[in-house]
Design brief:
The protein is of the alpha/beta class and 392 residues long. The protein folds into 2 domains: 140 residues, 3-Layer(aba) Sandwich (Rossmann fold), CATH 3.40.50; 228 residues, Dihydrodipicolinate Reductase, domain 2, CATH 3.30.360. It is 34% helix and 21% strand. The chain is built from 12 helices and 15 strands. The protein has a 9-stranded mixed β-sheet with strand order 14-13-12-11-7-10-9-8-15. Helix 4 runs parallel beside helix 5. It starts with a strand and ends in a 5-residue tail after the last strand.
Length: 392
Amino acid sequence: MSERLKLGVIGLGRAFTLMLPTFASHPLIAMVAASDPRSDARERFTEEFGAKAYEDAEALCADPEVQAVYVASPHQFHVDHVKLAAVHGKHVLVEKPMALTVDDCREMIAVARQAGIKLLVGHSHSYDLPYLRTREMIRTGAYGRVRMINALNFTDFLYRPRRPEELDTKAGGGVVFSQAAHQVDIVRLLAGAKAKSVRAFTGSWDPTRPTEGAYNAQINFENGCFASLTYSGYAHFDTDEFGGWWGELGQKRDADASYGRARQALRSAKTEAEEIEMKNRRAYGPSGRDAFRVTGDVAHNHFGLVVVSCERADLRPMPEAVIVYGDETRHVEELVAPRIPRAEVVNELYDAVVVGRPPLHSGEWGLATLEICLAILASAEHGREIDLHHQV
């Protein structure tokens, strides 16, 4: 068995809960420490994993046992926490979005380079096997060049419990920072070229949730491919209907039982404090790791409907397969069901840190994705196409 990578976690909130099943079951990871301001989260982490827990992120980064740090703190703290890790010589996996400004991303890349550490950005859904396999199929050349990509996702994102800054665009709130990063990553991965420009529109339609809840973006690429990205988090239509009711995290869903649940639950929070408390109950701490384990039938993670139009076929990555719609026949490339959810994230991190393989989702990759997210907001605000300058 290979030596395990000793991981410390900054932030035991919602992002961590999504990666928890991966870290807890992957044979290449040992969780040795965590930091979080909530005492109940620290106590449970220590109890469940026999690991250290700190109130302060700097103390975690100074721990000599920690080899790599997963930065899962709120968006606005990413730059400071990456810098802390770099100062102490720790490799970093930082959650998306990488940061809130291009300058912050460039600073993070610079400090990582100066410290000689590996910097990866994610989890985003471009790590998911259906999209990685589709990329491999495109690169064989069997289907010709990629000409057009359509990505569509409708969810209940805006009506899940939120902290105040998550409903404030200037503080990194809204669906563009949190959700467009997934779609942009996927489309960039499949286009296989640098993006040139963005034209976009955003929607903010509920004054009680005063941030962007929807967007539509058109991206032009240097190889002539163009992509359309549409997202709505307004909790009406649900694109899981197009994928056999497999949920984003690979879980089988009951469509009738779950319909309207997010809005209904949110109504019970009468104050800002009650909504924050509701959000905390969805984080690690009050509930242990078993509460976040997907049980029953599982498929791969995904992010809505994606169709890649090549010269000789349309390719549709799905939770269980990639469907190829060719000139005269249709066939299905089956995917083996995952044993460990999101294992691809740990595999890429381990390969970068231990094996020395250059990561796909590098700091430069994360910067390129954030630039497009910022261009979506700028294009919608100013009503014009935005040129891009930091693409890889």
